[in-house]
Amino acid sequence: MQVNQWKEKFQNTTLLYVEDDALVRQQINEFLQRYIPTVVSVSSAEEALDVYISMLPDIMLLDVNLPGMNGLTLAQKIRQQDRDVRIIISTAYTDKEFLLHAIELELTRYLVKPVVGADLLEAIDKAVAERIMRAHTTNTAYIILEKGYSYDMHRHVLMYQEMDIKLRRKEMILLEYFMTHPNQIIRYEILEYDVWSDSAMSRDAIRAQIRNVRKKTYSDIIENISAIGYKLTLKALL
C-alpha cells in the first residue's frame, strides 16, 4: 500500500506514543507522522497518563520497559477506565505469560523489537478497524449474528428471524458483552470481573451461562479458546 493510501486510512486517527529511548522515540515518531495527522510522543508512563487524560487518543503505542511505571502497568491503568482505546505494545518478550497479559488487556498487537515499519502500519490498521467495529457495536440498532439470528441493542432483545427470544438477565449481559468486544479472545478472569463484578462466578458457572446462550441460538456462536477463554466473531452490522 502506498503512503497516500495509508494516510487516507488514518486521516482521523490520534495516537499517543510512549518510549523512553530518545533515539528510538525520534525515529518511530518521524515514521508515524508520515501517516498519522496527530501523534504525541512522551518518554514515561507517568507523562503518558497526563497526556492521555487531555488527549483521549484512539491508539496508544507503548514500550514495555519504561522507567518507573512499566508499559503493562500503564495499560492496566488505562483499561480500568477505557475499553475503547486500542493499545499496541512494543516489547522484547515473547513468553506465554506475556501473551496472557496481552489477552487480558485486550491488546491489539504486540510487536517484538526492533519494530519493523510494515508491521507497525499493519498493527495500526488493525487498531483502527477495531475502533470502527466497537463504535458500530455500541451504537448500532441491530447486530447480525448467523443462522437467522440478530440482536436489537436498543431493546436488548435476541431475535430469530422476526421472533423475539427470551433471555435471562445474565444471559443477556453475557451476550451483549461479547458483542461489544467482537473478534477478541476474552479470558475467564475478564468475564468474572467485567460481566459479573457484583457476584462471584466460577469458571463452571460461566460455562453454564455460555451453554444456555448456545442452546437458545446455535452451538458455535461463542467459540471456546482452550484453557484461555472465549470469542464471538462478528461479520455484519446494521
Oligomeric state of the chains present here: single chain
Integer tally of domains: 2
Low-pLDDT runs of 5+ residues are: none
Share of residues in strands? 15-25%
Structural class: alpha/beta
Q: Say which CATH homologous superfamily of the largest domain is assigned.
A: Response regulator
Distance between the termini: 29 Å
Radius of gyration: 19 Å
How many DSSP-defined strands? 13
**What's the mean pLDDT score?**
86
Describe this entry's structure for a reader.
The protein is of the alpha/beta class. It folds into two domains: about 5-135, Rossmann fold; about 140-235, Winged helix-like DNA-binding domain superfamily/Winged helix DNA-binding domain (Arc Repressor Mutant, subunit A, Orthogonal Bundle), CATH 1.10.10.10. Helix content is about 45%, strand content about 20%. It is built from nine helices and 13 strands. The protein has helices at about 5-10, 20-35, 45-55, 70-80, 95-105, 115-140, 170-180, 190-195, 205-215, and strands at about 15-20, 40, 60-65, 85-90, 110, 140-145, 150, 155-160, 165, 185, 225, 230, 235. The strands form three sheets. The chain has a five-stranded parallel sheet with strand order 2-1-3-4-5, with helices on both faces. Strands 9-8-7-6-13 form a five-stranded antiparallel sheet, with no helix packed on it. The chain has a three-stranded antiparallel sheet with strand order 10-12-11. α7 (about 170-180) crosses α9. The two termini are about 30 Å apart.
